[in-house]
Target: Insecticidal toxin complex protein TccC
Amino acid sequence: MGNIFTSAYEKTPHLTVIDNRNQPVRTIQYYRSPDTLNETDERITYMRFNARSHLTESTDPRLFALQKNDTTTKANTTWITSLIGDVLSIDSVDAGRAVALNDCAGRPAFNISTEGLIRTWQYEDASLPGRLLTITEQAPNEQARITERFIWAGNSQAETNQNLAGRCVRHFDTAGLIQTNQFALTGVALSTSRRLLAGEVDADWQTDDQQQLSQEEFFTHTLPDATGTIVAMTDAVGNQQLQTYDRTGQLKGCWLTLTDGSTQTIIAAVVYSANGQKLSEEHGNGVVTTYLYEPETQRLIGIKAERPPGHVKGALLLQDLRYEYDPVGNIIRATNNAEATRYWRNQQVVPENSYRYDSLYQLINTTGREMANAAQQTSALPDFSTFDNATYTQYTRRYTYDRAGNLTKIQHTAPASGNNYTTLLTVSDRSNRAVLDSLTENPSQVDEYFTAGGCQKQLLPGQPLTWTARGELQKVTLIARSDEADDDERYRYDASGQRILKILTQKTSGIMQTQRVIYLPGLELHSNNTEIRHVITVGFAGTTQARVLHWENTQPSGISNNQVRYSYNNLIDSSALEVDSTGELISQEEFYPYGGTAIFAARSQLEADYKTLRYSGKERDATGLYYYGHRYYQPWAGRWLSTDPQGVIDGLNLYRMCRNNPISYFDDSGGESIPLVIHFAWEGKNIPTEALSNILFIKDFNPEFEVNIWTSRPMSIHATLDKMQHSETSAYEKYLARNYAQTINIQDTGTLYADLQKNHPQAKRLEALYHREISGVYRNYAAASDITRAALMFEKGGIYMDTDVIPANDLDTLAEVIGGAEHEGFLHAKTPKGTSNAVLASIRHSKKSSEFLEAIIKSTEALESIRPQASWTTKRSLMDENALIGRLKGTMMTTGPSVLAQLKLAGNQANMIPESIFFRRNATNTPLQKDELTSEQSLSDVVFRGLVPGFDARGVWAKARRLRRDSI
Model:
């Protein structure tokens, strides 16, 4: 705990100022650094709302201060909304201005992007289901092109035999064509194929003519079990991966069968604790990884990889990472006990990194070790060293930020080696755009180095960047030549924006060489002028990744064919060690906090050259950039190359990396964070006052959280609010209603499902289930709320809570959990008695939230296959709680907590929300205090009287309480 300077954090609260409509119009933070304890900077973020309480402006502390002296300074973000609050236009000083209009059905119809790209959507006629047919795009000064075309299956016998009826079977997109040939009954695609565009032409699908496509077709086949979980996959060249799971749905083992018929064990065994934490895993090379957790907080404090006694190569400790945290969860020290302390030039070099933070928890100081021959960090890798010749030295880095969170200075010192330098960045005086000072030192010129949409136009001096109209990086020119071809790297993306093709052209020994990489499910196809290589990506296991290198021809001498490379990672998934199939070490790498290689040693230069996954487990390109899936990251500058595609979801600074805390936080795709928004769902009768009181109480302690109640009957909420505002029996309820009624948003579920249709192929099916559950004599409001819960987690992201859940005062602990580095973007509550869906949290459009949504559909269809109408009339007709398909069990099986078991989340403790930060009330508890509030009573005195910690007794619905009984 030696790195905790408590005086830096004393009297630095985070304050929210509320206006007379209970809207948060200011947030105030107090900045103090451990290096300047006598200086405290008050930082004010400004928000403005219109007459309908819709947010219209947000301004960060830096620009807010500038506005006082310069009225031309714009707010960071300005929104124009419709009368019901839909955002019609966003104007960002970082990302530019965008306009989006929907049709009368709530579907996207017309869009102008920040880069000036005009996009229109075309749908089926009103007499048909209204499915999407084409998307047309027109870039500035160009002709319009149909960039996406959707072909839907009919109802022929051949199509129904493959379960294709009514599904999209061919999707022509910006990369080519992806075709689905067969579906399982659970909705899982069994056979898909991908064809790429021939050459490097732009997609224009005026018809479904396939002349634009290359002849090569890549097939992927999957085999799901009865729950829809993939247990086998055959990639495009015929390699097959197999996975097995235990009865709780957790991964047990993984095997790979290559095209030559040889089978290799990748994951031999996994051991879990009683509550689902992964304790150890054994891999096919005999290496065992064990995990250690802090008992009080369940934070991961140890990751150890070793060859155990009896290993054919002998026992050896390969990695033993230990982590220390401060009270709020920031990592303050990371030590590798597998490494010995070294000495160089009378200096002790300890295998340890230390970290210090300011009062805003931004990383300001770090110490560690680097190669003794290291130079100033650039886009290039440091020189390679063998294990025996590796020499290390200590370094210190200091980071400086401006009042908007822009990294402006990196001071690096390594006294023993003399590697001392300072990296400076110039920030625009009108936005958060910034570049290295080698490009410009004039803040007023910075915006000239960015496109209208906020994409950087130069990487380094003499290295221009080319972007598509969609805001995707298209080309990086590494070396420009006037008399012959440039050295460059080019990229192509699919409709979702994921990279599917990379082409590197460079002059080597006087000859232009071209290297291509095609990215397919579980497989990368690498080729150049002489070599064809397959890289097979095998099942992931905790902090370990496995890749197999197979050469079709020109296998280099000094490296075996079908080499398995296990990557053992640290807490933020950076690849620290590579180990081969025999348990021998291939390479070792350590990184600076914001990325970039500090140490790199390997047993040979040849094997070192074939390492591609590095910092955060991401691929490093020839440009030196890391590819995160939605954005590219420049580690030498500690900034993203373009703005956050999710907008202000992670703050007003759209270029900031992991809130300037890259040690404790982890961005998996370049734009993901769980928003601090809490959602509730209510259907049926008027919401009980106890339930609505729970919701309003959240705003008393957590004004910074946005709170939404989603319902098809807004009057069911308004009626209870009116009742509480005029209550003559409960001063508590009256106080909450009168002070916080205007701070919550009552949202129509119709808009939610309309938005969902834009982004998920199963949206119409899910919406049909929802409408079935809220209407007719067999309606089931609890199931309807469950379905809305799944739709919210995918389409909106944020936090979902049941109305009978009461958080323990402020939600700082929950905010810490969802902001952690280790979770998979989807979190759920875990009780001693089982999985609960009472509280969920998710990144918007996360993979797991999509699986959750699809699992509800699969579970419903699976129950129907057992007995027609089982999930509908049968479920609602059988009252017996013990009936196999009764009210409770049927609902739990199809939409309730049982569905979560299909997501395979239990193996990662970071995916779990602690039950200890919530309370519950049931029929046996003391009722809410009805007396007058006195000056001695706080809201907490009233709310928590008679409550007990945790969720309901079983974490499920078996004992329905009054707040739920009407709906089940």
The two ends are 50 Å apart (CA to CA). The chain has a mean pLDDT of 86.
